[in-house]
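[audit] Reproducing an earlier prediction to check determinism. Same input, same settings, fresh worker. If the tokens differ from the archived copy the diff job will pick it up downstream; this log only records the rerun itself.
[audit] input (182 residues):
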Amino acid sequence: MSFEPQNSLQIVQLLQQMEDYSRKNAAPLPMEERIKSLWSGIGFRIAKHKFVVPMGFVREIMKYPSTSQVPGSKDWVRGIANVRGNLLPVFDLQGFLGKKTTPIRRETRVLSIAKDKLSAGLIVDEIYGMKYFDQTHFDAKMGHDVKWKNYFSGGYELDGENWVVFNMQQLVESREFLNVAN
């Protein structure tokens, strides 16, 4: 559109034409989106059950380390590992929860957790990395069998799968967990 205005009326008309053209050809404004409040944690598996644990408890994730047996300890105590010069007690989380012990496979990992002065390595079948959940989809009733109920705090459904929030605080405060002697 080429146009040289002669007077102020033509300038106003030109501006009006430009405005009309812009309105007709402008991209629509994006829809207003609700900002989701996300909860995140480390996803892991014990047997067929999927769990998440808040990041604040996890110090590191490692392959199953070489361990030394602890005489007189319960069968779910796998031993003590030397991790970069620090002694780390290693526990079989599945064995502690009353199930059979975890077979050590290529995908088996140890969640190194720390809370106050307690540090421990928890054997899990597999790690799924960071998981993000919309907090509005939290289900306080989600969980697994009765024996485990003290160690979960609800959960989330994501892509058709249930992810139970594993309550590490409850675990590390549990007398059952702290009493490792036979």
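[audit] rerun output stored. Observation attached for the diff report: The two ends are 91 Å apart (CA to CA).
[audit] end
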